[in-house]
Design a protein that fits this description.
The chain is of the alpha+beta class. Helices cover about 50% and strands about 10% of the residues.
Length: about 700
């Protein structure tokens, strides 16, 4: 296939036939890109060339920079084409490939990130790894123009050294330490995780790292449970400090809502402006649960605002959720840059708002004439402002001598005016592929918010997404697939697709009590165990047993931007055990802890989603069966009462007494013995393996789920 001869030409390379927005972004490069596949590896063997593997994603700012600087450059493209077979991979389409070679980069360089650059042999064994590469060498970063001739020379004249190095790197990442014994007890592991997080906590600004600061919702979920379990006020204080700081900061989009990817500074002010679906989903869950725990409306408001953004910008007409929005966009002059869509100049705000509104905007959002942040590369004021809050609304209301409600109304009026103006700007590109795993997280978020805020549109959004995935994202034989775009579903689902979708289905049952969600969850769990479970040592592999043969079949437990598939799978299994009464689910769940015991014993703070599951397993965890007519007020009252408290380790089932043979009993046969008393809604509460006497009084039910068995 012909390739581009000039940047942005009408000629194309092999990526033009792909579905991935990221790959299509590179389809007009003069680099002779191949997609990952047998054609590329056969070409490398035939032409006796090493492989240049470039991994990124469509909303990655530095991926765009490297493309503009190097992959669209004829000199660089000529060197790449002469020396390598060049392969482009979308990390979101192929997380299995990305996972392996990111570990390679971390092993070789001590760090990693995107764009990820790997140079390897035709049999996929890597011998060089780095991230961003400039065209010319600068500031200690070797450039393409110097690097490529060096590698070409090594490949031609020192081949054996290269092959030996590749074998050594491959051996390192293929080593799998096996440990089956926890060094400390399970309760001590929770204590250690809390201690490690306490030591990392930024007491001044919130968060759990130095700059850059990432949203870490799975840490929030663990700390909430630790607080509930122990009553340790410091755990809740860390949660609230972090969530409040993030919501006030520039990492939050105060005009259109939703969170940006991360903050480049200590103060949550200057974000990396891309917006990822998984961040929105996990943060909705974190803010919603914090509202449950504190009853503070500010957390519910933030969760609702995120979901407003998702429904407006990230929901496909068919029901699935899009993946991301770009960090880069064009300004009025057509210049592409990061965050251009989101920042404001003082002069612009003066033309949009009347004097009174402008003064309030300056006070509320910390607007400065010369800009309110330093440009990261020059450390100079830009004249642009990132909207953020430096004072609580109550303080501003006191200064202005107005009620808090009046202040909120005035700020909302300003927000709407600015939103209308911003809508006329050139929007960031949207990655409109639908991914099963990220959609599973978003379904879980909508389901939790729906029952906490009694919002039917959230339930409907979750339902439409589930229906879309289960109808459109399957192979002809019913096998779950990972990616959908432009009418095509493709790529075998990985562990996270199954685990996260099951999580979403279980949350949808807790919201709707529609048994079909449990049926689908159990069916997918059967497939997950069949395709991913390590029958020898336990735990789940990331890729299915019939998937593509890669350098190594990974089995991971560490949380990254999204939680570990093994950790979420453990949570799924523990909940399915509660629902079905089948102890084999719990046995599998505990084997996950055992197979990763070395990691668990040493650094549980890096495994907070696993700590969430482990805390549920240790207990006390509660199961409540409500036997009653789902349409009757007494049944609804019991359900509402359970939802009014923060009970993270609670599983609720409804045994409908208005049906002769309820479908739920095919999943949970023990429900046949749990009937209503005197026609009233009746709660059967079990704590661990101990069941209390059935009650028809709401207060008695609540008392039973907030106390341990005698």
């Amino acid at each position: 296939m012909p390739i581009s001869t000039t940047p942005n030409s009408a000629k194309t390379n092999r990526l033009i036939n792909e579905k991935s927005p990221y790959l299509l972004q590179h389809a007009h490069n003069p680099v002779d890109w191949y997609p990952w596949g047998s054609e590329a590896f056969e070409a490398a063997r035939t032409e006796n060339k090493p492989i240049f593997l470039s991994i990124g994603y469509s909303t990655c700012h530095w991926c765009h920079v490297m493309e503009r600087e190097s992959f669209e450059d004829l000199e660089v493209a000529k060197l790449l084409n002469e020396t390598f077979i060049a392969i482009k991979v979308d990390r979101e389409e192929r997380p299995d490939i990305d996972q392996i070679y990111m570990e390679v980069c971390q092993a070789i360089t001590g760090s990693g990130g995107w764009p990820l650059t790997i140079i390897m042999t035709p049999d996929k064994k890597p011998f060089f790894a780095t991230t961003y590469i400039p065209k010319e060498t600068r500031f200690g970063h070797v450039g393409f123009m110097e690097l490529i001739p060096q590698i070409k020379d090594y490949w031609a004249h020192r081949r054996q050294e290269v092959l030996d190095s590749a074998e050594e790197v491959t051996h390192v990442i293929q080593e799998v330490p096996i440990s089956k014994d926890l060094k400390i007890s399970e309760p001590e592991i929770l204590e250690l995780a809390f201690t490690q997080l306490s030591n990392r906590f930024d007491k001044e600004e919130g968060g759990f790292s130095d700059a850059p600061k990432f949203p870490t919702p799975h840490i929030i979920l663990f700390l909430l449970r630790y607080w509930k379990r122990t009553g340790n006020a410091n755990a809740l204080q860390m949660v609230e400090k972090t969530l409040q700081a993030m919501r006030r900061g520039g990492i939050f989009d105060h005009i259109g809502f939703g969170f940006h990817r991360y903050s480049t500074d200590f103060f949550w002010l200057v974000p990396h402006f891309e917006k990822m679906l998984y961040d929105q989903a996990l943060l909705v869950i974190a803010y919603t649960e914090t509202f449950e725990a504190t009853k503070k409306e500010e957390y519910a408001t933030t969760a609702r605002e995120i979901l407003t953004y998702i429904l407006r910008e990230m929901t496909a007409p068919e029901g699935g959720f899009y993946s991301a929005e770009d960090a880069d966009s064009k300004d009025e002059a057509g210049q592409l840059g990061e965050g251009k869509f989101y920042v404001w100049k003082e002069t612009e705000l003066k033309t949009i708002l009347n004097n009174k509104a402008f003064e309030l905007a300056v006070k509320t959002f910390n607007i400065k004439k010369n800009g309110n942040f330093l440009e990261q590369t020059t450390q100079e004021q830009t004249g642009e402002n990132i909207l953020h809050l430096i004072k609580p609304s109550s303080d501003i209301a006191s200064e202005l001598n107005v009620s808090l409600e009046e202040l909120k109304e005035r700020i909302e009026t300003i927000r709407k005016q600015l939103f209308e103006v911003r809508e006329k700007r050139a929007h960031p590109n949207k990655d409109d592929k639908v991914l099963t795993d990220w959609n599973g997280l978003m379904v879980a978020a909508f389901a939790k918010a729906a029952r906490d805020f009694s919002e039917p549109i959230y339930t409907a959004a979750g339902k439409r997404a589930v229906d879309f995935i289960l109808k459109k994202m399957r192979r002809v034989d019913g096998r779950l697939l990972h990616r959908y775009r432009n009418g095509e579903a493709a790529i075998l689902a990985n562990l996270e697709d199954y685990a996260f979708l099951i999580w979403g289905l279980l949350e949808m049952y807790q919201t709707t009590f529609d048994v079909k969600y449990l049926q689908d969850a159990l069916k997918l769990d059967d497939e997950m165990l069949d395709l991913f479970w390590d029958k020898q040592d336990g735990g789940f592999f990331f890729t299915p047993r019939d998937g593509e043969s890669l350098l190594v079949r990974k089995k991971d437990i560490y949380d990254g931007a999204i939680p570990s598939g093994n950790s979420v799978a453990m949570w799924d299994l523990l909940h399915l055990e509660k629902i079905t009464g089948k102890t084999e689910f719990a046995e599998k769940a505990m084997r996950i802890v055992q197979v990763f015991s070395a990691e668990v014993s040493k650094g549980p703070a890096a495994l907070t989603q696993l700590m969430v599951a482990l805390e549920f397993a240790i207990g006390p965890s509660f199961e409540v069966v409500i036997a009653g007519n789902p349409l009757s007020e007494d049944t609804k009252t019991m359900i509402k009462a359970l939802r009014s408290s923060f009970l993270p380790n609670l599983v609720v089932l409804v045994n409908p007494t208005n049906q002769t043979m309820p479908l739920i009993r095919t999943i949970a046969p023990y429900l046949k013995d749990q009937q209503s008393i005197q026609g009233k809604a009746t709660a059967y509460v079990c704590v661990g393996k101990f069941c209390k006497a059935p009650v028809t009084d709401v207060n008695a039910m609540l008392n039973a789920v907030t106390t341990n068995p005698d």
